[in-house]
Structure formats: structure tokens, C-alpha cells
């Protein structure tokens, strides 16, 4: 039986997915595709739509009454709101400071809020992970991610 925390998490995921889906229609993501008629945000829109639909489905499936032991604790609410705030901050920072600079602190904070406390490993992965994803998409797959304006100055 789902807890209040899980129901709240499904609702927050649905809201974040809806916000990210809506943000893909902005001019910041309207970049020329590499030879096809399909926009570069076509696949992300499909994934975000699926995330939204599945989280709403899980939200409706989780309407069973909960017991006292399943009530959402204050720590759970704080963690939930922190993850939602980080998600929104990363989403809004992407068009302005680029993929790498937006996702590096976001990845660090996600892992921290989910309980990972090995700071050396966490710091390395938070820096190397976004660069690896950037290289994969921009250089190997040819799918441009939002760029950091200052990279051209380096």
C-alpha cells in the first residue's frame, strides 16, 4: 500500500514533468535539427509525456487509505520539496547557463538528498557525469544540448 510520501512524490514528479514538457516549447529549445523533419525535442517530449502519464496513473492507483505508520513525516516532506526545488532550478537554469553548469550541482544535490554521502565520489561524478553526457550527445550522437555561453571563451 503506497504511503503519503509516495503519493506526494508521484504528484511532484507529475508536476515537474508537466513543467519540463511545457518548457520544451520555448524558443530556447528551437534549434535546427541535423537533417530531419523531427525536432530535437521530439524524443524528450515523448519521455516527459510518459513520465507525466505514469506518475498520474500511479497517483490514482495509490488512493487507498493509509495507516498512521504511513503518514508523511516532516523529514520526508522536506526531502520531497528539496528534490522538487532542485529539479525546477535545473530546468530553469538549463537555457541560461547550459547543460553542464546546470546539471553538475543538480546531480550533486539529488544524490545528497537521496542519502549518498561519499563526498569525494559524489563530487567527481557530479562533475564528470554531465561532461560525459555532454560529449555523448553533442559529439557522438550529434544532438545539441543547451550550451554554456562561456565555453566558447575557453
TrEMBL record:
<keyword id="KW-1133">Transmembrane helix</keyword>
<keyword id="KW-0472">Membrane</keyword>
<feature type="transmembrane region" description="Helical">
    <location>
        <begin position="42"/>
        <end position="60"/>
    </location>
</feature>
<dbReference type="Pfam" id="PF07331">
    <property type="entry name" value="TctB"/>
</dbReference>
<protein>
    <submittedName>
        <fullName>Tripartite tricarboxylate transporter TctB family protein</fullName>
    </submittedName>
</protein>
<feature type="domain" description="DUF1468">
    <location>
        <begin position="11"/>
        <end position="146"/>
    </location>
</feature>
<feature type="transmembrane region" description="Helical">
    <location>
        <begin position="119"/>
        <end position="137"/>
    </location>
</feature>
<feature type="transmembrane region" description="Helical">
    <location>
        <begin position="97"/>
        <end position="114"/>
    </location>
</feature>
<feature type="transmembrane region" description="Helical">
    <location>
        <begin position="72"/>
        <end position="91"/>
    </location>
</feature>
<keyword id="KW-0812">Transmembrane</keyword>
<dbReference type="InterPro" id="IPR009936">
    <property type="entry name" value="DUF1468"/>
</dbReference>
Amino acid at each position: 500500500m503506497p504511503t503519503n510520501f509516495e503519493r506526494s512524490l508521484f504528484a511532484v514528479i507529475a508536476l515537474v514533468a508537466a513543467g519540463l514538457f511545457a518548457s520544451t516549447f520555448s524558443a530556447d529549445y528551437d534549434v535546427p535539427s541535423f537533417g530531419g523533419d523531427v525536432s530535437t525535442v521530439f524524443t524528450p517530449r515523448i519521455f516527459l509525456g510518459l513520465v507525466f502519464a505514469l506518475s498520474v496513473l500511479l497517483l490514482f492507483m495509490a488512493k487507498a487509505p493509509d495507516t498512521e505508520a504511513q503518514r508523511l513525516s516532516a523529514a520526508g516532506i522536506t526531502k520531497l520539496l528539496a528534490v522538487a526545488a532542485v529539479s525546477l532550478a535545473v530546468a530553469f537554469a538549463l537555457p541560461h547557463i547550459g547543460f553542464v553548469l546546470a546539471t553538475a550541482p543538480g546531480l550533486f544535490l539529488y544524490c545528497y538528498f537521496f542519502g549518498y554521502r561519499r563526498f569525494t565520489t559524489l563530487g567527481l561524478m557530479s562533475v564528470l557525469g554531465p561532461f560525459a553526457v555532454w560529449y555523448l550527445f553533442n559529439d557522438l550522437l550529434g544532438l545539441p544540448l543547451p550550451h554554456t555561453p562561456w565555453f566558447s571563451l575557453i
